[in-house]
Specification:
Layout: E1 4-8, H1 12-24, E2 28-32, H2 35-44, E3 49-52, H3 62-73, E4 79-83, H4 88-96, E5 101-104, H5 109-124, E6 135-138, E7 141-144, E8 149-152, E9 155-156, H6 161-172, E10 178-179, H7 180-187, H8 193-210, E11 217-220, E12 224-227
Parallel strand pairs: 1-2, 1-3, 3-4, 4-5
Antiparallel strand pairs: 6-7, 7-8, 8-9, 10-12, 11-12
Helix pairs in contact: 2-3, 4-8, 6-7
Length: 229
């Protein structure tokens, strides 16, 4: 069965262009013009991946609200912002809300398709049988790299796919500094330094919500980050 991509875009011509391109690549595509119609559809069934604009009709930040709602429904659903708004504040806001990618509308169809395939590839492992060699344990942290699940002190840690692979890269080798480039490589994303910093801050907040004494992710200023074993 074709994988289902939802596009939430209020400009009909742009939405149709994305839809037609993705349909030619074999995807099943649904298009929604506003947050309300998308939210109603997502309440019944989530897509395999969501592409969202920030401004939706009269709602200047409707996409941000929709992202927040989607992330509450599923911690692992790939969410991509595709928007003309490219300010640093907007990018950081989108990622803080849990989006996996924040892309601008100047991106080519080929680049967009590559990002979609990368995100879908990373979540495909969720249904795979559990294998012992895919389990990572570092102190109170447990991660299953095939199912992309994580826990801290026995409590579920809800990470996006990008966050998961960043934590995995850090925890694999405690004490070793991972540069921002290495974190991007491990998560199969292309981000700037400020965006990496935003992801790390969000990851820390998730750990702190479970354990207020959490301090395992250390900043090596000007270099990167490391996991303190």
């Amino acid at each position: 069965m074709p994988q289902h991509i939802a596009i939430v875009e209020d400009e009909a011509t742009i939405a149709a262009n994305y839809r037609d391109h993705l349909q030619r690549q074999g995807f099943r595509v649904s298009v929604y013009a506003n947050r309300g119609s998308a939210g109603q559809a997502f309440a019944l069934q989530l897509p395999d991946l969501a592409i969202i604009d920030v401004g939706l009709g009269d709602e200047m930040e409707g996409g941000f609200e929709l992202c927040r709602e989607l992330r509450a429904q599923s911690p692992t659903l790939p969410i991509v912002f595709l928007t003309a708004r490219d300010s640093e504040l907007d990018i950081i806001s989108g990622l803080r809300l849990g989006a996996d990618e924040y892309l601008t509308k100047g991106i080519s169809n080929a680049q967009l398709l590559a990002r979609i395939h990368a995100l879908l590839r990373r979540v495909r492992a969720l249904g795979a049988p559990e294998r012992q060699e895919q389990l990572l344990r570092q102190g109170d942290l447990e991660m299953n790299r095939e199912r992309m699940t994580a826990s801290w002190r026995g409590e579920v840690l809800e990470l996006t796919v990008t966050e998961f692979w960043m934590v995995n890269a850090l925890a694999q080798h405690p004490g070793h500094i991972k540069s921002r480039q290495q974190l991007m490589d491990s998560a199969d994303v292309v981000l700037d330094d400020n965006t990496i910093t935003s992801h790390i801050k969000r990851i820390r907040r998730k750990f702190l919500a479970l354990d207020e004494s959490f301090a395992a992710i250390d900043t090596a200023y000007g270099v990167g980050y490391r996991w303190k074993g």
